[in-house]
Design brief:
262 residues, mainly beta, 14-stranded antiparallel sheet, 4 helices
């Protein structure tokens, strides 16, 4: 268990127990496979000179088992400034997720002094002033909360609106250093958990999708989610997260949730 995944053959990966999520012991947390999808998009986009991941939307169709999975990516449109991609995450012969992404071409650009929103706002507290935070499920054996390290920047962990720093304790893919975009994807799927407003032991509030929008390339190992959950009275809700690196705001993530009694 020295990485979330090992690559079996090109495009085929074996998940380790470090990907285990909170809802079922045989199912992955959606963060690691979203990051694996991000990795595939980055590689396909780089071939066209598109190096910034502006958006990633992952539609979660069924749980990803802790076992082998395969990723397929298709370029839908490649232009001068942007490219659109789509694809599938497959396990056990079934689609467990489908995804779309926007990749953009980067170039140097100087932001004029006095531009509103520049420099970007920073996370509520820097990493150095944020105490270590431990997820309740981390006591249940190896899983996602062993894959990441957390620091509390605002609020309470797993108890309403909060801001939490994330850093990978292990590589995403064995033998590789994760990219900044992959670090964001691993963390961004946790917004509904860290801002939980319902009792985890009485309710399930898993997400049906994940959308990440990024204004710029993330920098460094640490990613902060400042998250809150919005409840609807119809068994549906959403979680939204502002995303930060140590230099400031980098984008946002949203999740559509299904709420059910256990």
């Amino acid at each position: 268990m020295d990485a979330a995944y090992s690559e079996v053959t090109e495009g085929v990966f074996r998940a380790s127990p470090l990907t285990r999520g909170p809802w079922h012991p045989d199912h992955q947390h959606a963060g690691p496979p979203s990051a694996l999808i991000c990795r595939a998009i980055e590689r396909a986009a780089a071939e066209a000179g598109l190096t910034h991941l502006g958006r990633l939307t992952v539609n979660l169709m069924r749980p990803a088992p802790i076992g082998e999975c395969r990723i397929e990516v298709t370029p839908d449109y490649l232009g001068r400034n942007a490219g659109h991609f789509s694809g599938r995450l497959i396990a056990g012969g079934k689609d467990v997720a489908r995804f779309t992404a926007l990749a953009q071409r980067e170039e140097d650009f100087t932001i004029p002094d006095g531009t509103p929103g520049h420099p970007p706002p920073r996370a509520p507290k820097p990493v150095s002033e944020s105490p270590v935070a431990v997820a309740p499920s981390s006591r249940e054996g190896a899983g996602y909360w062993s894959l990441v390290e957390n620091r509390l920047a605002e609020g309470k962990f797993f108890n309403g609106p909060s801001a939490i720093w994330f850093r990978l304790n292990h590589p995403l893919v064995k033998g590789e250093a994760p990219s900044p975009y992959q670090r964001v994807a691993v963390a961004a799927d946790s917004g509904n958990g860290i801002s939980a407003v319902l009792d985890f032991h009485k309710y399930i509030f898993l997400n049906c999708d994940l959308t990440i929008n990024l204004a710029r390339r993330p920098v460094g190992e640490w990613i902060c989610l400042q998250s809150r959950t919005l409840l609807g009275g119809n068994g549906c809700r959403m979680a939204e997260s502002a995303l930060y690196d140590e230099q400031g705001l980098i984008g946002r993530a949203t999740q559509s949730l299904a709420v059910r009694r256990r």
